[in-house]
Design the sequence.
C-alpha cells in the first residue's frame, strides 16, 4: 500500500476519529469503572472481523491493583445500566472487569503486532467555562466527577481508527493484530493485569504512545521515549481518638493533624542525587467537624523515581515517615500499596523505522529521535514483557498543542493529532505487515 | 409544694425521661437540620397548655450562623418526610428554621422564667460495639453520620420533663415560663438568632445547664459555672491550579499542601500568657486523586479563648497565618466566619439558692459552688442579654459519669442525671414561682 | 519600731539601693557563673555582723542542674579574675559554686526568718539605644552576651538593703535571719541545690518575691501569688550524617531538618484542657555550612504546666515527638533534663499580715490579695520545703511599670520599687521579729 | 616529548604530590581565608620561572561574593601570622584577597593555556578516628573547624605538580601557561571574581577538573562533564521580638520558630518536572536561651537547578516562601545572595583529544566520554568566558575511590589520582603545546 493511500485513508478517518473522541469524552469513567466506555468500544467494533474479548478474558483477576470502593463501583455500574448498556454485557464486566481486547488474525505468515490504548479518565470536575472547547462545543463530560483530562479519550479513538483500517484492509495484510483497550492506566493499576493474562507473551512488535506531554506541533512525533518513571501508589490511613476540642483536647489523639504533618514530611523527602523523584499526596479526607478532634484521616499518595531503584528509595523514605508521624501523634496507621509501575525503554531501531515510514506522509512531517516522558506509564509492564520474550517495542509521543497541562480541569488537545497517530501506525503496519 | 412532692414527681418522671432521651438519641440530627427532632418535641407538647412556636418565630433569620450546605439540608429534610413528619409542619421549618419555643403564662403575678435546652447532634459516626450501651440496648442513632455525642438528647428530654411538670402543676404556680429548645448549639451558631428574635428580652430568671463535662456523680450539681470560652468558627478554602504530579509538578499550585501546612501553622499558634486558648482544625477535604496536584482544599476550624479578647488574639493570629500560607503556596484563600460565641458569667446568688432548694432532695445531694466549663457554649449570648436587661442567670452543671468524653463516638452518660436535673429546676420554680 | 521609722530608713536606703542595682546590672552573669556578682555581694556585707557562706556551703553539689559548658565557665571565671576578684575567693567558687548565704542570729528568742533573692542574669544582648535607660545613663551590661533582663539585679539590691537594715537594727530585733542570694534561678536550676543543702529546714517564715511581672504601679504589692508553673528544661541533640548537598543529598541524614521539624512538632503539642501549658524551643544551633547536609543539631527547650501533672503531660508528649522526629529523619537523638521546677502556693495568712503592716507606709500604698505569676520560679522548691517542715511562706509581687517585658533586650523597671520592697520586708520583720 | 617521558615524569612527581597534598590538608582554610594556603603555594613556586600574582591582582574586588565575617577573617589572618607567614605577604592578601595566579610565557608562538585549581576547604570538623587515614597517618587538619573534605588539597597539589613540570620543561614548550589557584570555590563565590579580573579573556585552551565525584578507579578519567548545576547561595535572617516564654509568650514574635518553619517550607519546594533541583538549609543559629522567645535567627541556604532557568524557579519559590514565613510569624526578614553559579558545558572535541593523548599512558588507562557532575562548580563562569571569547574548554573528572562522600567528615581519596591527573594534563600540553 502506498503512502498516498495511507494519506487518503487517514484523511477519511478524521471525521470519525473526532466523533469517537467526543463521544468517549462525554462518558468519562475512572479506572476499573469503564462500563459505558467498554460497551461503546464494543459497539464500534462488533460488526468487524475482530474477535472481541471482555471481562475476565482481558485481565488476570488477582493482578488488578487499586480497585475502587464498592459504592463507587456501584455508582458507575448503575449509571451504565441507566444509560442503556445491556445487563448481559454488564454481567461479564461487573466488579471491575473493564477493558477489551480486539484480535484479528490474517492467517497469513507475518509478525504478531500488539497495540495498546488506555481508556480511563480522572476524578476531576471538568471546567464548564466557554474558553474550554469541550464546554463550548457541547461534549463536556456528563459525569460531574470524572473527566478525560489526560487524553485517553483520544487514545481510545485512535485505537478505533486503527481497528477500522485493519478491518477494511485485512486482505492486504499479513500476520496477527491484537488491539488492547486497557483499563485503569491512571494510578498504574491496569497494565500488569493484562500482562499477567498473557496477552503480550508472543508479540513480535508492540507499539503504544501518548498524545501531548510536550508542547509539540501536530505532525511531530517522537519515535522513542525515555524517562518513564517508576512509581508506587499508596493509600494511607491514620486512626486516633476523637474528643471535644474545647473541653478535653489533650484526651484526643489527632489523626487529622497526623495527616497534615505526614503530608508535609512526605513532600520534604530529600531529593535523590542520581535521578528524578516525585512525591504527591493528591487527596486528604480527615476529621468529622470543627469542634471535634479528628479521629480518622485518609490520604491518597504516590512516589516516583527515574529508575525502579530510585523509586524504591522514595518508598522506603515515605514508609518510615508515615510510621514516624503515627508515633509523633500517637495514632495508628495503615499503608496499602494500590498501584505500582516500573521503568522501561523503547527499542532504538524504531527511530529509523519511524523516520523511514513517515517519508511522504501528509500527517507526520517531523520525527524526533526521542522525547522524555517524565511521568509514569504502566505500559512499561507491557514493554518489559514483550522485550523479555524477544519482541521489539516502542512508546511514541504524538505532538499536539495543549490548552492546559495534563490533569488540569481545562485540559484539551488539538484533534488533528488523531489522524496523525493513526497514520503513523498504518504506515508501520504497511511496512512491516504487508 | 413540698420537697417530698418534687421528689415524688421526679421519680415518676424517670421512666418517661429515659424514653424521650432514647427516642431522641435515635433521630440525632445536626444543627439547623433538627426537623424530626423538632417534630418529636412538638408531638410531646402539643396536647399541653403550652403555646408552641416554630419556624421563623423562633429565630431571627439573618442572625443564624453556619447554615449547612443545600445538599445536607435536603438530606435531612427528605429523611424527615420519609419518617412521616407532615409536609405542613416541615413547610414552616424548611431552610433551617428548626427549634421550638414553648410558652406558658399562669396569668398570675410572678417572675418570668426562661429555660434553654439545646437539641442538636454532631457529625460523628456512632460506635456500634456492644460495650456502647446505646448499641447494646438498641437505641443507637439511625442516621449513620450524626450522633448525640454531647448529651443534647438528655438536655431536650430534661426540657420535656420540665414542661410536663409545669403543665401538670400550673395551677400551683405564678409568673410566666418560656422553654427554649434551641437549634445548632454545636459550632455556636443558634443562640444568637434566638436572642435576636427577642425571646430573652424580658426574662427575670434564666437557667440552663449541661450534663457531664466533669467526672461528677449523679446527684452532684454545680450552682454556677465559669470559663465558658469565647470562640470563633471559620471555614477556610484554598484554591490553586491542578497539574500532572509526575509530568509537571512545578506547574501546579498546590492547595492541598497549603491546607496541610496551614493546619500545622494554626495548631502552632503561640499560647497566650494570660488565659486559656484552643485551636482545632476539625475537618479537611482536599485534592482529587493521587496523581494530580490538588487544586482545592476545604477546612473547618475554630479558635477559643478564656476571654473574648484572648479569642480575638487567636483569630488575628489565625487569619494572618492563613494569609501567609496562601502566599507561601501561591494559592488563593477565603476565610468565612460561620459561628461565634462570647464569654459569660453566672450570677453568684444562685450558689445559695441551689444549696437551699436542694435540701431534702433525694435527687440532688451535693452542691458545688462552681465548676469550670473550659469549652464554648452559645448560651453565653442568652445569659448576657438577660443580665443586660436586669435579669439573673446561671448555667448549671449536672453531674454524671461518662462512658467516654464529649464528642467521642462512644460517648454515653448515666441516665440518672435526667430526673436529678428536672428535680433541681422544679425545686427552684417551687421556691421562686409559687 | 514605728512605721515612721521604717519609712525614714527606707528613704535613706533609696540611693544605695539604686547604686547597688546599677553596679550589679553592669556585671550581669549567667547562672552558675555569678563570680563577680557573688564577690560584689560579699564585699557589701563583709563588714557587717552577718556570717557569710560561699562555695560548697551554699549548694549541694550533686543537686545543681544545668551547669554551663566548661568553656563558658572559663570565660566568666577569667573575666572575674581580670576584674580583680581575688584568686582565694574564686578558688572556693570555681566550677559553678556561686551564690551566698548571709546569716544573722540575734541570740534572742524569736522566729527564724529566711529571705531569698536570686542573682543571675540571662544570655541576652542588651539594647544599646538611647531610649534604653541603662544605656543612656551609663550602666548597661559590660558583658555583651549577658543581661539582667528579669530584674534579678533589683532583687539582689533589695537583699543588700534588707541586710543593711538588719545589721543596723539588730539590737532591736529577735530571732534569726537567713538571707539567701541564690544562683541560677533562670532555667530552674539553683533553688533545689540550696534546699538540698538544708538551708530551709528549720525556717519559720520564708519570704521571697519578684518585681514586675504585671503592669502595676510602684507602691502596689501582691501579698500572695498563684500559678507558679511547673517546668522541665531539656537539651536535645540530633546526630545524622553529612553529605554534599548537591551531589549526594540522599546519602545524608539531615539532623538540621530534624531539629526544624522537631521544633514545629513540639510547638504544636496539643493544649491541655485542664490548665495552662507552655512550650518553648529557645535556641537552635545546627549544621556546618550551606552546601553540606547538616549532621548535628542542638536545641535548648522547656515545657511548663500549671500543675506538676500537666507539665508531666507536656514532657511526655515532647519526648515522644523528639523520638518520632529522629525516626522520621533517620537520625539519633539525645534528650537531657537540665532543670526542673514544681508548683507552689503562698500561705493565705500573708494577705492579712501584709495589709496590716503596710498601714501608714509611705512606700506600700496598695495591697492586692493575690496575683498570678504564670511563669516558673524555682523558689517553689523552697516554699515546699518550708511548708513541709511546718513553716509559713509567701512569694510577693512588687509593682513597677516595665519599659519592656521580662526577657526583652530593653527590659527595665522603675527603681522606686526597690525601697518599696525593702520597706515591706522591714515592716513584716518589725511586726513579727520585734 | 614521548609518552614514556611523561610516564617517567609523572612517576617522579608522585612523592612530591602526596607531600604537597598532605601539607595542604593540614592547613585547611575556608574560602577567602586561604592565607596560609596561598603562602604555601607561593613558597613552592617562588623559585621557578613563573611570575606570581597575589592580592588584588588575582580577583576583582567587588565581584567577590560571600565574604566571611570580620571575626572569622581575623581568626584565620592571626593564625597565619602565628604560623609564620610574613606580615608583608599578608598585607597584600588581608581582607579576603587570597588565591594566586602563576604565569609562564615561553615567548614562542603557541596556544594560551589556562588551568584552574581550587584551594579552599570546608567548615567541617574532621574525623579523628583511626579508620580515617589523615588521622592515622598524622596529617589531619590542624584547624579544628575547617577540613579539606572536597579534595581541593588534591587539586592544589596537582596544580603545583603541573607547574613544576612546566618550569622544568619550558624550553621544550610553546605558547603561554596560566595556572589559577582559585579561592572560595565552595559556595560558588570565587570564580566570578577571577573572571572579572580578566584572566580568562584571551585563553585558547581552558582545562580544569575534579577528583572523585563518582566511584571510579584511579586511572579512569572522564573527558567531558555535564550537569554542572546552576546555584544560588543565600543568607537569611529573621528578626522578631523576645519575651519571657512562660509569662508572656504571646508578646513575643518568634524568629526561631520562623526559621524552623521556613526550613521545612524551603525543603518542600515542589520538584521541577523538567530537570534536577536541590535545596539545602545547611546552617541555622537561632535564639538566645531556652526560656526566652527567640528574637533572631540566621540561616545559610542554597538552591540548585540543572539549568539556570530551573535554578531561577527554585530561587523564586524560595524567596516567596521566606516572605510568607515572615508574614506567618510576624517577623522581619532579610535575604542576601552571597554566591551564584551558572551551568556550563565542556567542548566535545576533548573526548577525542583525551583518548588520543592517553594512549600509552601508564597513569590514565580508561577514558569515559562524559560523566555527570550533579553539583555546582563555579568553574562554569570560567568555561563560559573562555567559550564566549572563542576558546575551547573542558572540565575533567579524575577517578578515585572515596572513603566517604564529598563533604563528609571522614572524606578521603586514593592519592594515586594525583599523578594520574598531572599525567593527563602533561600529555595534553605535549600534544597541543609542543
Sequence:
Amino acid at each position: 500500500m502506498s503512502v498516498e493511500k495511507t494519506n487518503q485513508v487517514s484523511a477519511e478517518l478524521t471525521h470519525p476519529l473526532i466523533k469517537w473522541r467526543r463521544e468517549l469524552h462525554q462518558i468519562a469513567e475512572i479506572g476499573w469503572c469503564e462500563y459505558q466506555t467498554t460497551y461503546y468500544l464494543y459497539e464500534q467494533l462488533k460488526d468487524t472481523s475482530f474477535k472481541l474479548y471482555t471481562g475476565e478474558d482481558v485481565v488476570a483477576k488477582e493482578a488488578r491493583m487499586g480497585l475502587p470502593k464498592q459504592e463507587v463501583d456501584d455508582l458507575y455500574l448503575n449509571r451504565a445500566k441507566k444509560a442503556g448498556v445491556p445487563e448481559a454485557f454488564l454481567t461479564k464486566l461487573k466488579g471491575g472487569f473493564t477493558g477489551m481486547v480486539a484480535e484479528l488474525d490474517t492467517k497469513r505468515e507475518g509478525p504478531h503486532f500488539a497495540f495498546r490504548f488506555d481508556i480511563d479518565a480522572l476524578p476531576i470536575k471538568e471546567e464548564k467555562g466557554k474558553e474550554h472547547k469541550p464546554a463550548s462545543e457541547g461534549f463536556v463530560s456528563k459525569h460531574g466527577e470524572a473527566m478525560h483530562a489526560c487524553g485517553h479519550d483520544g487514545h481510545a479513538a485512535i485505537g478505533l481508527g486503527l481497528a477500522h483500517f485493519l478491518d477494511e484492509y485485512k486482505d492486504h495484510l499479513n500476520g496477527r493484530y491484537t488491539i488492547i483497550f486497557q483499563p485503569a492506566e491512571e494510578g498504574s493499576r491496569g497494565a500488569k493485569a493484562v500482562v499477567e493474562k498473557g496477552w503480550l507473551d508472543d508479540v513480535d512488535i508492540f507499539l503504544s504512545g501518548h498524545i501531548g506531554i510536550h508542547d509539540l506541533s501536530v505532525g511531530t512525533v517522537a519515535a522513542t521515549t525515555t524517562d518513564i518513571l517508576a512509581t508506587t501508589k499508596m493509600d494511607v490511613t491514620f486512626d486516633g481518638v476523637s474528643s471535644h476540642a474545647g473541653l478535653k483536647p489533650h484526651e484526643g489523639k489527632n489523626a487529622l493533624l497526623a495527616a497534615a504533618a505526614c503530608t508535609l514530611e512526605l513532600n520534604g523527602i530529600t531529593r535523590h542525587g542520581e535521578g528524578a523523584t516525585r512525591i504527591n499526596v493528591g487527596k486528604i479526607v480527615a476529621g468529622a467537624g470543627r469542634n471535634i478532634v479528628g479521629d480518622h484521616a485518609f490520604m491518597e499518595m504516590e512516589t516516583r523515581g527515574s529508575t525502579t531503584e530510585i523509586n524504591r528509595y522514595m518508598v522506603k523514605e515515605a514508609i518510615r515517615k508515615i510510621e514516624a508521624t503515627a508515633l509523633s501523634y500517637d495514632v495508628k496507621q495503615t499503608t496499602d500499596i494500590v498501584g505500582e509501575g516500573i521503568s522501561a525503554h523503547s527499542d532504538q531501531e524504531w527511530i529509523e523505522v519511524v523516520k523511514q515510514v513517515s517519508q511522504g506522509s501528509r500527517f507526520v512531517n517531523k520525527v524526533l529521535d526521542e522525547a522524555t516522558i517524565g511521568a509514569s506509564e504502566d505500559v512499561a509492564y507491557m514493554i518489559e514483557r514483550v522485550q523479555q520474550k524477544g519482541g521489539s517495542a516502542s512508546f511514541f509521543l504524538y505532538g499536539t498543542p495543549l490548552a492546559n497541562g495534563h490533569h488540569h480541569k481545562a485540559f484539551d488537545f488539538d484533534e488533528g493529532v488523531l489522524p496523525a497517530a493513526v497514520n503513523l501506525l498504518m504506515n508501520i503496519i504497511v511496512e512491516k505487515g504487508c
Notes: The first strand of chain D starts at residue 51 and ends at 54.
